[in-house]
Write a structure and sequence with these properties.
This protein has a single domain, classed as Hexapeptide repeat proteins (UDP N-Acetylglucosamine Acyltransferase, domain 1, 3 Solenoid). About 10% of the residues lie in helices and about 25% in strands. An eight-stranded parallel β-sheet has the order 1-4-7-10-12-15-18-21, with no helix packed on it. It has a seven-stranded parallel β-sheet with strand order 2-5-8-11-13-16-19, with no helix packed on it.
Amino acid sequence: MEQEYTIKNSEVSPLAKLFFRCNINSSKVADNVIVGDMSRLTSSELAEYVKIDRYNLIYHTQIGRYSYTGPFDMIFKAKIGSFSSISYGVTIGPPEHDYKRLTTHPFLYDPSYNVFSHEEILPQTKFDKEIIIGSDVWIGCNATILRGIHVGDGAVIGANSLVNKDVPPYAIVAGDPARIIKFRFPEDKIQELLEMKWWDWPIEKIKENRELFLNKVVE
């Protein structure tokens, strides 16, 4: 009988749910996490109640509590806050090719092509710029966020957007390249929310203040 999933050099909570042929390598998985079919997690940390959908590749990434991804997402070298929503087909921190060299082909960095030896290949730099994504961020389907970008708390990234510049807190951006369309709330309300940092509250405090969440901030 084929093994349903693979765990290697990892700390996985017995309360986590791992689905068909997912692969957990050198990672930490907290309570009540879900990792979907065929998803791969390498050198990463998932806080409690994180949900990783099917066919994800999560590499050297930390994801805060209650955040989730959609299917077919690829995330490289990122720190993602809590309560963030990532839709399907999203790419965060994709490797980039150095077009200033004679070739953009990876044989410059990978000895398995048998072009250059281990001693001759160039050092890998494709994951040297970390991506920071705040809490309560919503990233629409098929969006791409380039390496080294900082997305502020509460921001919204429109579907199919290419984000190549930092995004301020609570900004709504869209387009290729993405530009600011508007902000979710007035400036004074944004400052109040940034000071409140509700995403750091214990769940019991969130429940006690349910009116704040169930009612609209602005009409």
